[in-house]
From TrEMBL:
One of its GO terms (biological process) is prolyl-tRNA aminoacylation. It holds the Pfam family HGTP_anticodon. This is Proline--tRNA ligase. One of its GO terms (molecular function) is proline-tRNA ligase activity. It comes from Candidatus Woesebacteria bacterium GW2011_GWD1_38_10. The keyword Nucleotide-binding applies. InterPro entries: aa-tRNA-synt_IIb, aa-tRNA-synth_II, aa-tRNA-synth_II/BPL/LPL, Anticodon-bd, Anticodon-bd_dom_sf, Pro-tRNA-ligase_IIa, Pro-tRNA_synthetase, ProRS_anticodon_short.
Length: 410
């Protein structure tokens, strides 16, 4: 991608109302744009990061037998009435009425919709277990959406749902999903903690959250010393001497509902081996995809800008050409580097703009791509290599750059 053509350009100043790091840096660097409170446009750079995150999640969901689908965002009132959540979840749900006086909700989650699918298509024990997931927009009536893209009224989420014959099978799969979530967060680069918490509007039971330590977090967790286990402050009971208190961001949550909360209320059953009608055991599992974008910036940044982990960076290389006046040799060298890296499968952003060197370097630090390459009269027939999380520079030949980049990608 040529930076001269990239939309939009970077900004020198943060938005006046920005408090959180992710709000300031993602807007300045051109990853997101705010339409209104709690509603964000994912700009081309931001959408590239989101697609990297989705790719990681999709691989791990498929690895545990998840089947991807896509469910509607607008739901009839009747289906929410079956579980009583039209009223009990009213505070967080956007409810609306059409011209025919028919009432609908905009999805803030999809449990009821999945249960409707299950009762239509699951008949016998041969149809279970089943796990289905999608990447979908969610709408939640947050009274005070804050923290940049960390908490919105409209956001992208991955939700997985599983149905089982027995509680034991549900619990076994619940642990598989828990392990898959840890793999996802590790692949992104997060140091995450499995945290016991309350279920909120989803369930009366305790649930398992996945928390990432960050000062911008809304949660307070107590981490059991020398472990990856924690308790949310809302359920904490214990000796503080055994725990370390931290602020954190919830990046995932998993809910084991069993056979009562949804299956019994919506009459979702199957025929067992003996021909007996049994209730389906049900669980759901969520990851806030756009929240991961904001969390990454809160965790990985410095005073100059973002420092993307290579697994989710919008590009792997930021190529900068520096030339006095119109030095065609430098331009030609940059073109060669750009073409050969692209042919080697390396994602590259080329700063081909006619601006001062200081502006190019500042933008490279702000955008935060893992590797910066500089071609200039000073570098001669070599290329200056610098990684975003280091101040060390090296001079390399083009074939060395290609070999190193291909090695980094493995």
């Amino acid at each position: 991608m040529l930076q001269s053509q990239l939309f939009p350009k970077t900004k020198k100043e943060s938005p006046k109302d920005a408090v959180s790091i992710n709000h300031k840096l993602l807007v300045r660097a051109g990853f997101i744009d705010q339409l209104m409170a709690g509603s964000w446009t994912l700009l081309p750079l931001g959408w590239r990061v989101i697609n990297k995150i989705i790719g990681i999640i999709r691989e791990e969901m498929n690895a545990i037998g998840g089947q991807e689908l896509l469910m509607p965002l607008m739901h009839p009132k009747e289906i929410w009435n079956e579980t009583g959540r039209w009223e009990s979840a009213k505070e967080v749900m956007y409810q609306l009425t059409d011209a025919r006086k028919k009432e609908f909700a905009l999805s803030f989650t999809h449990e009821e919709i999945v249960m409707d699918l299950l009762r239509k298509h699951v008949n016998s024990y041969n149809d279970l277990p089943v796990a289905m997931y999608h990447f979908s927009t969610k709408f939640r009536n947050e009274l005070r959406p804050t923290g940049g893209i960390l908490r919105g009224r409209e956001f992208l989420m991955k939700d997985l749902y599983s149905a089982h014959q027995t509680e034991e099978d549900m619990n076994d799969y619940y642990e598989k999903v828990s392990d898959a979530y840890i793999k996802i967060f590790n692949r992104i680069g997060f140091d995450s903690y499995i945290t016991e918490a309350a279920g909120g509007v989803f369930t009366e039971n305790r649930t398992r959250e996945f928390q990432v330590v960050a000062e911008a977090g809304e949660d307070t967790i107590y981490i059991k010393k020398d472990t990856k286990k924690a308790l949310n402050k809302e359920v904490f009971e214990g000796n503080l001497d055994d725990y370390e208190e931290k602020r954190s961001i919830e990046v995932g949550n998993i809910f084991p509902f069993g056979d009562k909360k949804y299956s019994e209320k919506m009459n979702v059953t199957y025929q067992d081996r003996d021909g007996q009608s049994k209730l389906v055991y049900f669980a759901s599992y969520g990851i806030g995809v756009t929240r991961l974008l904001g969390t990454a910036v809160e965790v990985f940044h410095d005073e100059r800008g973002i420092i993307w982990p290579k697994s989710i960076a919008p590009y792997q290389v930021h190529l900068i050409e520096l030339k006095k006046e119109r030095n065609e040799e430098i331009k030609k060298k940059a073109e060669e580097i750009y073409d050969k890296l692209q042919n080697a499968g390396v994602e590259i952003l080329w700063d081909d703009r006619e601006v001062m060197a200081g502006e190019k370097f500042a933008d490279a630090d702000l955008i935060g791509i893992p590797v910066r390459l500089v071609v200039s009269e000073k570098s001669g027939d070599k290329i200056e290599w610098k990684e975003r999380n280091s101040d060390k520079t090296e001079l390399l030949q083009l074939d060395e750059v290609i070999e190193r980049m291909c090695t980094r990608e493995k």
